Amino acid sequence: MRLTMDTLSAPLTACRLSALMLLFSYAPLSLADGTLTPGGSLGENMRMSLDLSSRITHFDRADETGYTNAAGLDLHKVFSGTDGDIGTLTVQLYWTRIDNLIMRPGFFDGPDDSELVYRIVNFNYTGLGTQAPHFRVGHFEIPYGLEHTVDTNGNLRDYTHGRNLGVKADWGVSVNGELPALEYEVSYTLGGGQEAERKEGSYVWAGRLGTPRDNNQVYGVALYHAELKNTERNRLGLDAMWYYDLYGLFAQLDIGEDADNDVLNGIVELNWRNPQETWLLFLQNQYFSTDRSDGDQQALRHNLGVQYTPDSHWDFSAQYQHDSDVFDGAAEARILSLQARYRF
User: Fold this and answer.
1) Positions of the chain with pLDDT lower than 70, given as ranges
2) What is the pLDDT of residue 44?
């Protein structure tokens, strides 16, 4: 049988439903050391937390304020056998409510809406061995660029996957692994984002090869090819992270095409953490350019953010976004976001 995106849709939908059922099958629950853990043998090698967050977003140009409230479960379970680990299940499901959010993800139907959001829901089979290929199925982040190596889910900080690639996380399958000097992941996904289905013939191929993300110097190269909303997207991405003492310098360069338009995007971030790693400060500069039919277009965005994590439960963050240049016909953004998050 020839493997197509249509043949993948049914098993991926089944995977999504199975993850939902599995999430609520662990009982009874007990609260210990600030983390919910199920009773019985199924709870071994498993972490599960309740995650609550509330975000206020003020859009200065429109003089409007929006609100985002999310409540979800974050589950991480390692399945093991007599010969070692079999695989890892990750389930991050969040019931999310937005009110008056004039700039929002496309899966919301309007500025006032509620949705069950699948952040990460997948199983990664690792039973062939530590350095052998692993096989992932479910909903996961597209393996591309800084967003693949830095966990930004549920935070104000991000690396523009949506604007650059058209999708941040998607339903599909991947081959991934870690070698002593390299890590890799190659994926084939449906292009539906939150939905485990093809939309208008959509699909996404993506892959990243990089040095281990725990190093003080991390380098990666990524390729991306997609058909989204009847538009072909192609990218070649180069990313790097350099750490020195308490400082980090991150950079990403993207070269490619959207349909017949040449695209050049880039990100540079300088960040700092205090020795206790309770404070994080970051400054991002993001550049976008394309040669649309109405002429070359350029945009420049600056993000200044702070995150305070006093313990394993609380997380407070703020970010100010400022556009100093925009594409023709677009409005310059002045956005202040505040978020409080609690995990237990």
Assistant:
1) 1-43
2) 79
Structure tokens at 119: 């952040």
Q: How far apart are CA 50 and CA 344, in angstroms?
A: 5
Domain boundaries along the sequence of the chain = 5-343
pLDDT at site 12: 52
Positive or negative: CA dihedral 52, 143, 85, 179: negative
- Enter the DSSP assignment of 296: E
Distance CA 31, CA 33 (A): 7
Pairing of strands 295-308, 247-258: unpaired
Q: How many CB atoms lie within 10 A of CB 121?
A: 24
Question: Domain 5-343: what homologous superfamily?
Answer: Porin (2.40.160.10)
- Angle at CA of residue 237, ends 231 and 241, nearest 5°: 145
What pLDDT, on the 0 to 100 scale, is given for residue 292?
82
The residues pairing with 289 across neighbouring beta strands, listed in sequence order, are 264, 298
* Token duo for residue 104: 């929002």
What residue type is assigned to position 36 of the chain?
L
Contacts for 344 with CB less than 8 Å, ≥ 6 apart: 31, 34, 35, 36, 49, 50, 313
Pairwise CA distance, residues 344 & 114, whole Å? 23
DSSP state of 106: T
Q: Hey, what are 220's tokens?
A: 């990666």
How many C-beta atoms surround the C-beta of residue 53 within 10 A?
Answer: 20
